[in-house]
Amino acid sequence: QKEVEQNSGPLSVPEGAIASLNCTYSDRGSQSFFWYRQYSGKSPELIMFIYSNGDKEDGRFTAQLNKASQYVSLLIRDSQPSDSATYLCAVGTGGYQKVTFGTGTKLQVIP
Amino acid sequence: EADIYQTPRYLVIGTGKKITLECSQTMGHDKMYWYQQDPGMELHLIHYSYGVNSTEKGDLSSESTVSRIRTEHFPLTLESARPSHTSQYLCASSRILDEQYFGPGTRLTVT
User: Fold this and answer.
1) Residue A35 in contact with residue A59, Cβ under 8 Å?
2) CB contact under 8 A, B99 and A98
3) Contact assignment for B43 to A44 by CB distance below 8 Å
């Protein structure tokens, strides 16, 4: 079992819809959770981070964390074609432990 | 905006040459990382550092070496480049517990 698992996709949603991206992790001691967006040929760019159970909203993006179920999700409201990218989930155990990245989910927003 | 720089951005070099990929950050981050990523594939951690004179190997076996003599500088060296080293190399940095910021990457081609 991988430490951080994501469905590789592609996930296709129509423009204006809500895109829901999911990620599960295996280490119950994980403390920090991140979502990165990576356009083809570019570097990953941080879009959200969350440390506590519940929801965290930033513009059209909402990160949701459920530590009991060991999953973290990213919702993108009013999806735009410019949101088409690969979304990477990353999980850290804090302190001097490294952050583990998932393999990423490819999102396609259809105009 | 993150201030992390990588040079060169693109490098085409012949087999057997020694190369050094440069990475510098001006944010005073203690933690720095090198990742390898082939097009459309997942990120693989190859080296990381928690501070000056600290370096560790990552999850992916690599023939490269790194050094951390100054906080802001984390160069990666390949003593003898091979075609199998052709890939994109991404440098990142972070504070303890904080999110990683990525540089623009170096696209290496070994002929």
Assistant:
1) no
2) no
3) yes
Question: Tens of pLDDT along A71-93?
Answer: 999 999 999 999 999 999 999 87
Cα distances (Å, whole numbers) of residue B85 to A22, B47, B81 = 32, 15, 7
> Using CA atoms, how far apart are residues B50 and B26, in angstroms rounded to an integer?
16
d(CA A79, CA B27): 33
The runs of H, that is alpha helices, within chain A are none
Q: Is A95 on the interface with B (CB under 8 A)?
A: yes
Q: Distance (Å) from the C-alpha of residue B105 to the closest C-alpha of chain A?
A: 7
Tell me the per-residue pLDDT of B97-111, one tens digit each, with 9 for 90 and over: 678 999 999 999 999
CA pair distance B27, B103, nearest whole angstrom: 12
Spell out which residues of chain A touch residue B105, defining contact as CB-CB under 8 Å. Answer: 42-43
Quick one: which of B65, B62, B81 has its CA closest to B14? Answer: B81
Q: What is the pLDDT of residues B69-93, one digit of tens each?
A: 999 999 999 999 999 999 999 999 9
Nearest to B83 by CA among B111, B63, B59: B111
From B97's Cα to the closest Cα of chain A, the distance in A is 5
Q: Is the pLDDT of residue B1 over 60?
A: no
Q: What is the distance in angstroms between the CA of the first residue and the CA of the last residue of chain A?
A: 36
